[in-house]
Amino acid sequence: MDDNLPRPTVSAQWLLPRLENPNIKLLDCSWHLPSSDRDPYSEFQEEHILGASFFDIDRISDQNSSLPHMLPNSQYFSECVTKLGISNQDKIIVYDNMGIFSCPRVWWTFRVFGHNNISVLDGGLPAWKKAGGRTSPANIIRSRGDFKATTNLELVASLKEVRATMNSAHSQIIDARGKGRYIGKDPEPRPGLRSGHIPGSYNIPYTSLLEPDSSTLLNKLELKKIFLQHRINIDNNIIATCGSGISASLIALALYVCGNKTTAVYDGSWTEWGGRKDTEVQI
Question: Which tens digit of pLDDT belongs to each residue from 212-222?
Answer without folding.
Answer: 988 999 999 99
